[in-house]
Amino acid sequence: MYRIRKSYVYLLCRALGTVYKSSETFHDYVDDTEFVEIQSVYEWLANLAVTSCDPDLGLRAYRNMHPAMLGALGYAVMSCATLGGALERLVNYYPLISSGSLLKLELHDHIVKIVSIEVTKKVPRVFIDAGFSILLALIRWLVPHYYVVPLGVELVYAPPGERAGLEEVFGRNLKFSAGHNVLVFPREICNYPLITASPKLDRLHADFLKVQLESSPTGFASSKIRRAVAQSLALGVTPTLDSIADALKVSKRTLQYSLRNEGLSFSMVYNDVRQALAHDYLRHSVYSIKYISATLGFSDQSSFYKASLRWFGMTPQNYRDLS
Q1: Domains and CATH numbers, the chain
Q2: Can you list the residues of the chain whose pLDDT is less than 70?
Q3: Is the pTM of this model over 0.90?
Q4: How does strand 152-154 pair with strand 174-175?
Q5: Which runs of consecutive H residues, i.e. helices, occur in the chain?
Q6: CA gap 122, 39 in Å, rounded
Q7: Quick one: how far is CA 138 from the chain centroid?
C-alpha cells in the first residue's frame, strides 16, 4: 500500500480551492492517521476535477504554493546554500511526503532533469499538474532574483484538448504521453544561491531529516539501502547485495523484491550513491582524486575517470575545477 502525508493533502486541497461541497471534502476519505492511502487521494482528485469541470484544476497550486506544504522538508530545503543543494535534498527526502512516486535528479552537461516516476498506475492528471506546479513554484520561491524557466516539460498523460493553462505555467515546450513526468532546466540553476541559506540550520535540518526518514512508514527501501551503501563506503568496505542485506537485517530476496517494486536494482542504487558522493567530494572537499577514487571503491583511478566521464561528462579534476 502506497501512502502520502495527510497534512500535504490538506494543504493541497486549500491550494486547489474549495470547489467541493462540505460533505464531499477529503475528510470523508480518511481516518485520523498521519498518512493516508494514496489511491484514495487519487480518487478524490479525479472526482474533484470532474465536479469542478476544470481540467486545469491542478495548475491552481502554482499560485498558492508555500514551502509549508512540504512540512519539515519544505523548511529544510530553504537552508541549503544553492538551488542545486535544495533540489538534491528534496529528491533524497521526498519519501517523507509520499511513497507513491519517486523523484530523481539527473545532471547532464548543460541541463538538469527532475524526473518523477509514478509507482502506482492511473495517476490523475490533476495530481501530476499540481505536483509539478508546486515544484516549479518552490524553485522560483527559493531564488526570487532569478526567473527560472523550464527548457521543457514531459508529461505521461495524453495531449489535452486545451493547452493554454499548461503553457502559461510551464511554457510551450511540452511533450505528452511520455514515459515519465520530467522537468528540464538549464544546468546553471544548480549554482544559484538561496537567500534563505543558513549553514547552521542546514546541518540541523540534515540530521533531523535522516532521523525522520528512518522512522517514516513511507520511506523507500532504496533510501535505506543508499544510506547503508554510503556507510559501507565510508568504512572502506565495498558493499555487496549480501552485505547490505545483512546490515539491514533482511534477506537478500526481500531486498531485491523491495527494489524491484521501485523499478530499481542494487547496481543502480550503488551507482547513484557513488555518483552523489563523487559530486560532494569533488565539489565540496579538499581530498585528493586518488583518495576519493579509493573511498568510492574503485580498483584504480582509471576506472574512476571513466565513471566521472559517464556521470559528469568530464574528468574528476575538470569537474572539481567548476566549483
Answers
A1: 3-191 (3.90.1520), 220-321 (1.10.10.60)
A2: 1, 18-33, 119, 121, 214-221, 262-263, 323
A3: no
A4: parallel
A5: 6-16, 38-52, 72-78, 83-93, 125-142, 164-170, 199-215, 221-234, 241-247, 252-261, 266-284, 289-295, 301-312, 316-321
A6: 9
A7: 13
